[in-house]
Specification:
- The chain has 118 residues and is mostly helical.
- The protein has one domain (14-115): Orthogonal Bundle (Arc Repressor Mutant, subunit A), CATH 1.10.10.10.
- The protein has five helices and two strands.
- The chain has helices at 14-24, 34-40, 47-56, 81-92, 110-115; strands at 32-33, 67-68.
- It has a two-stranded parallel ribbon.
- Helix 2 packs across helix 3.
- The longest helix has 12 residues, at 81-92.
- It starts with 13 loop residues before the first helix and ends with a helix.
- It binds a DNA duplex (13 and 13 nucleotides) through helix 2, helix 3 and strand 2.
Length: 118
DNA sequence: CTGATGACGGCGC
DNA sequence: TGCGCCGCCATCA
């Protein structure tokens, strides 16, 4: 049966793959926190790992701009070019960005519930 | 092995 | 809301 998933091993390369998959699964117009992505990837408590993976990512197709800090703030210094680009890409998605911050969906929303079976 | 670093998170004030 | 402190994880000097 496929009922059992392998135990989460953060050090294995597939961890990064799971993270990338979780990020790719965030639909346009929506956003998620680093910690949320980590959980969706089966790596609870590895928010910083998500950040690490993203920092090494080169795929322009990856919706990296939809990943924000838990408080809805963009994780870049407000004066950095990355910050500016993330702002643009978010708005291109139709997301409202106020002062480098967006309205992050509550974790207990339906969408989150579907994603995080626990 | 110890200490520093980073696209983090939660809590307290 | 803003800020600081501390905890956590993985990597690197």
């Amino acid at each position: 049966m496929l009922t059992r998933m392998p135990k989460p091993a953060a050090s294995m390369p597939s961890a990064a793959a799971a993270i990338l998959a979780a990020i790719r699964a965030v639909p346009r117009g929506q956003v998620a926190g680093y910690g949320t992505i980590a959980r969706r990837a089966g790596l609870p408590g590895r928010a910083r790992l998500v950040a690490r993976v993203l920092s090494g990512n080169t795929d322009r197709e990856l919706p990296w701009h939809r990943i924000l800090r838990s408080d809805g703030r963009i994780a870049f210094p407000p004066d950095s070019p990355a910050f500016a680009e993330q702002c643009l890409r978010l708005r291109a998605d139709g997301v409202e960005v106020r002062n480098g911050r967006v309205r992050l969906p509550r974790e207990d929303s339906l969408d989150a519930a579907v994603w995080s079976p626990r």
